[in-house]
């Protein structure tokens, strides 16, 4: 039966080489269109609940009201009800239809094991809306690893990830088209190191895209790439997420960019004075994100940039007064064009780079 699985695995793999893999099956990369490389459509972020600061107003209850909007924007992780994106599939469906109308084609859905991936819902959303959805394989940060995950060897973890891509995940036949977001903390834990090595081994077998959630230190992204590279991963097919809250110094950013991964600015739409996961970090504004993109374009990295919103809480949905999945297409692209980024470069960032990253080698 091992032989049969190996034979069927190589058949499946031969079908996806040169293609992208959506929740509805393999697809010609030319069909992707404008792509958000880091979003969530259904997930729970309960793992990252932060109690409100002493003396703060109490958490709002759902249904949220207009008067709660500012509180939620400033304290999104201090309201449990705000962390259950999986309760809002109807609103997400409406948003995906609006995303298509705004010119969007594809969404890479980064929910992995640990934050309640729901592949049947993703498949239904893709069918209902016509948006291409690519699902993520693998594991989120250590705090969400189960005892069973922690006990797995690198080989076992590799098998699990490979199977999620080739055969389907969570007991379904719905296949993931990317590994990640693979979660890491800072410092990187032992269990996360094993998952990173397994990610690299799986990528070496599959020729597939990888996307990483780094811990909150400017040193984290390079350390992650070192682990992946040592284990045989393909850095040129790897996205480093959340750079907007991770590397601020321009010289450090250039040093990191030279390592050759894709560089992702993916918190567009996030406004927050005090970032509770790392109070030393000043969360940038969208204007500062655009400035960072313009800087990297000027420095010659336009082929390596990808962008997204990483929606993972309810308050960021249009239903709750948030910016929604179309914010980049409707508001950020026009701003980019006024800040020295050409239409051709915008098209690279939104279409060509995601296409090259997502295509199986
Ligand atoms: C879902 C997820 O991991 N989002 C990233 C949030 S963070 O504050 O940038 O780490």
From TrEMBL:
Superkingdom classification of source: Eukaryota
Co-factor requirement: a divalent metal cation
PROSITE patterns for this protein: PHOSPHOTRIESTERASE_2
A GO molecular-function annotation: hydrolase activity
Keywords associated with the record: Hydrolase, Metal-binding
Binding site for a divalent metal cation 1: 38, 40, 181, 310
Cofactor note: Binds 2 divalent metal cations per subunit.
InterPro entries: Metal_Hydrolase, Phosphotriesterase
Residues the entry annotates as binding a divalent metal cation 2: 181, 213, 242
Catalytic activity: N-acetyl-L-leucine + H2O = L-leucine + acetate; N-acetyl-L-methionine + H2O = L-methionine + acetate; N-propanoyltaurine + H2O = propanoate + taurine; N-acetyl-L-valine + H2O = L-valine + acetate
UniProt KW Metal-binding keyword: yes
SUPFAM superfamilies given in the database record: Metallo-dependent hydrolases
Family: Belongs to the metallo-dependent hydrolases superfamily. Phosphotriesterase family.
Xref: PANTHER family: PHOSPHOTRIESTERASE-RELATED, PHOSPHOTRIESTERASE-RELATED PROTEIN
Protein name: N-acetyltaurine hydrolase
Source organism: Oryzias latipes
Lineage of producing organism: Eukaryota, Metazoa, Chordata, Craniata, Vertebrata
């Amino acid at each position: 039966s091992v032989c049969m699985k190996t034979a069927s695995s190589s058949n499946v793999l031969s079908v996806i080489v040169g293609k992208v893999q959506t929740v509805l099956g393999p697809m010609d990369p030319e069909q992707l269109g404008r792509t958000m490389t880091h979003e969530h459509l259904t997930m729970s972020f309960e793992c990252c609940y932060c109690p409100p600061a002493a003396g703060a107003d109490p958490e709002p209850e759902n249904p949220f009201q207009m008067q709660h909007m500012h509180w939620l924007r400033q304290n999104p992780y201090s309201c449990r009800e705000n962390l259950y994106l999986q309760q809002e599939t109807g609103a997400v469906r409406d948003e995906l239809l609006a995303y298509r109308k705004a010119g969007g084609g594809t969404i890479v859905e980064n929910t992995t094991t640990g934050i309640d991936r729901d592949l049947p819902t993703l498949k239904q959303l893709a069918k209902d809306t016509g948006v291409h959805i690519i699902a993520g394989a693998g594991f989120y940060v250590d705090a969400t690893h189960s005892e069973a995950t922690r006990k797995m060897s690198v080989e076992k973890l590799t098998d699990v990830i490979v199977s999620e891509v080739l055969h389907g995940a969570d007991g379904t036949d719905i296949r993931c088209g990317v590994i990640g977001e693979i979660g890491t903390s800072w410092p990187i834990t032992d269990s996360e190191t094993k998952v990173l090595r397994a990610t690299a081994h799986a990528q070496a077998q599959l020729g597939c895209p990888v996307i990483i959630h780094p811990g909150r230190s400017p040193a984290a992204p390079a350390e992650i790439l070192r682990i992946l590279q040592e284990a045989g991963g393909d850095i040129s097919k790897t996205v480093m997420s959340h750079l907007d809250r991770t590397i601020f110094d321009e010289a450090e950013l250039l040093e990191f960019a030279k390592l050759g991964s894709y560089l992702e600015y993916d918190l567009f739409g996030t406004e927050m004075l005090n970032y509770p996961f790392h109070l030393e970090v000043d969360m940038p504004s969208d204007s500062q994100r655009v400035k960072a993109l313009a800087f990297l374009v000027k420095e010659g990295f336009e082929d390596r940039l990808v962008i997204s919103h990483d929606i993972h809480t309810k308050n960021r949905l249009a239903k709750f007064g948030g910016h929604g999945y179309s914010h980049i297409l409707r508001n950020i692209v026009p701003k980019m064009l006024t800040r020295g980024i050409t239409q051709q470069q915008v098209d690279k960032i939104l279409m060509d780079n995601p296409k090259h990253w997502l295509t199986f080698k």
